[in-house]
Design goal:
Chain A contains two helices and six strands; from the N terminus they run E-E-E-H-E-E-E-H. Chain A is an alpha+beta fold and 108 residues long. In chain A, the strands form two sheets. Chain A has a four-stranded antiparallel sheet with strand order 3-4-5-6, covered by helices on one side. Chain A is globular and about 40 Å long. In chain A, 22% of the residues are buried. Chain B has 186 residues and is an alpha+beta fold. In chain B, the strands form two sheets. Chain B has a five-stranded antiparallel sheet. A five-stranded antiparallel sheet of chain B has the order 3-4-5-2-6, with helices on one face. In chain B, helix 1 runs antiparallel to helix 2. The longest helix of chain B is centred in the first third of the chain and has 11 residues. Chain B is elongated. Classes of the chains: A alpha+beta (108), B alpha+beta (186). Bound molecules: zinc ion. Zinc ion binds next to loops of chain A.
Chain lengths: 108, 186
């Protein structure tokens, strides 16, 4: 079972209280972007075997979006962090790298 | 009476805990900057309590304020005073970015009472009730629908759901509380 801690309300709950929102930190491609970039923005998603950064929403709780770093193989959750960030905070990056040496390059 | 009006009805069938609609409640959603002193004064004027800390509910007699999210409170007042509460909040928060809405007709409240009350909820909500503190409000789900629950007395919980699913919620609570379905039989 996947347990997540919402960084907004602090509740730790199992995944049925949350709604998954797919890959995190996509860069939006808007007007003026190339067709290839726009297509990739809409459809191309990483499907890693290992560390994955994802969006989740505390749908049955406080309703807020947040990010989670977890392992798609073991379901280990390295940590969660607020949605208004462009990437994991430094402590979390260090925690992931400690558990998966080499991440993000080849650490999967 | 339509089943959806169950929230205003009395006690249901006898179970290992008593389950009933808690009757009409005045409920006001208040969104804004929860750290604002202006908002704190507005809340205090309506309820007599401070702004609750994260996941807390502050109760003062027949009024209460619950922390719903980092920018949302639920203000509970007697049903007849909900309109006046919205007006008072809007007046006190004029000029501040906020939203106050009377959601009394959109929500329903239920009371689960008795030594087995926690067992009724344990089967329905993915919540560790052993760690749910006095004065803490827990938003989660009851079966398939969103719900908020808190300890409103000794061996008593209050649960709030959307009114549109009140019939489902009372049926769920009664089913969970039916005799012989205790999670920890004596
Ligand atoms: Zn939350």
């Amino acid at each position: 079972m996947l347990m997540l801690t919402c960084p907004h309300c602090g509740v730790t709950a199992e995944e049925t209280e949350f709604a998954p929102g797919g890959q995190a930190h996509l860069k939006r491609q808007g007007p003026g972007s190339s067709d290839d970039d726009f297509e990739a923005y809409l459809f191309a998603r990483a499907n890693p075997r290992g560390v994955h950064l994802e969006r989740w929403r505390h749908a049955f709780g406080c309703g807020k979006w947040f990010h989670a770093a977890r392992c798609t193989v073991t379901l280990e959750v390295f940590g969660t962090y607020p949605a208004r960030t462009a990437g994991p905070p430094a402590e979390l990056r260090a925690a992931i790298a400690a558990r998966r040496p080499g991440w993000p390059e080849g650490g999967r | 009476m339509a089943r959806a009006d169950i929230a205003t009805e009395g006690a249901g069938p006898a179970g290992f805990a008593s389950v009933a609609g808690a009757g009409p409640r005045g409920m006001v959603t208040l969104r804004g900057d929860l750290t604002s002193p202006v908002l704190a004064r507005a809340v205090a004027a309506v309820t007599g309590t401070g702004v609750p800390a994260r996941r807390r509910i502050e109760v003062a007699g027949d009024r209460a304020v619950a922390w719903m999210s980092p920018d949302e409170l639920l203000v509970l007042v007697p049903r007849a005073e909900a309109g006046a509460a919205v007006a008072a909040l809007e007046q006190a928060l004029a000029g501040e970015h906020h939203l106050a809405a009377d959601v009394s007709d959109a929500r329903a409240a239920f009371t689960i009472r008795g030594p087995g009350a926690q067992g009724v909820l344990m089967k329905l909500c993915p919540v560790d009730f052993a760690t749910l503190a006095e004065g803490e409000i827990r938003r989660s789900r009851a079966g398939q629908v969103a719900a908020a629950v808190w300890r409103s007395g000794a061996d008593e919980f209050t649960l709030v759901s959307f009114r549109s699913v009140a019939g489902y919620v009372i049926a769920l609570l009664e089913f969970s509380a039916r005799p012989g379905a205790e999670p920890f039989p004596a």
